[in-house]
Amino acid sequence: MSLILNIDTSSENASICVARDGAGIVLLENADQKDHAAWIHPAIAKSMKQANCTLNDLKAIAVTAGPGSYTGLRVGMSTAKGLCYALNIPLVTENTLRVMALATKQTFNDLYQQKDTLFCPMLDARRMEVFTALFNTDLEEVMPSSAIVLDEDSFLDHLAKCKIIFSGNGSKKMQQLVKDPRAIFAQIHHSAEQLSFLSNKKFVIQQFDDIAYAEPLYLKEFYTVSKK
Description:
Helix content: 25-40%
Largest sheet: 5 strands, mixed
CATH topology of the largest domain: Nucleotidyltransferase, domain 5
Distance between the termini: 57 Å
Strand order of the largest sheet: 3-2-1-4-5
CATH superfamily of the largest domain: ATPase, nucleotide binding domain
Number of domains: 2
Oligomer: single chain
CATH architecture of the largest domain: 2-Layer Sandwich
Radius of gyration: 18 Å
């Protein structure tokens, strides 16, 4: 039996989920992106109390590794690694975009189980750039996670062959560019509850990350304006 603390601070909405065997017991969320660092540790303590367990009962810690907010990814990764070190338990990391794709799949489960449907989560990366990937209905990557600048030709080859469900805050940019009826746009809410399902699958097969070397998936370099 696996009791896993799942942490997602990769986007505007942060969340933690205490889950047993992939099923959420307690889910807490924070919508203030600037407050993720201050919120995370009190929220973990609160979630443990609500789940009627202690940190010592945990079998693993899972965290979304990215892509996403640079600061948010560091908050989540450092928290997860610190707890793993202190508790001597394994670390599980998961791609933020796969977590988002699972949320889309769960929302459209009754309508889009056909093999000709792809899920395309998108995170806003400023201007016309997004962090994105393509997943099939088995949540396998058809196009690897990348940072791309959207234009009228983006995803045309895939849309010629199948439906694509675009989601996430970056999908609004894509919606301005494409009018193909096979392009479906949806605002899907994801959280650490979806991470719970994915992290449990990795826990069962002992697919753990090296705590010392695990790092966020930024996809592109952090940019700042230098002061002269």
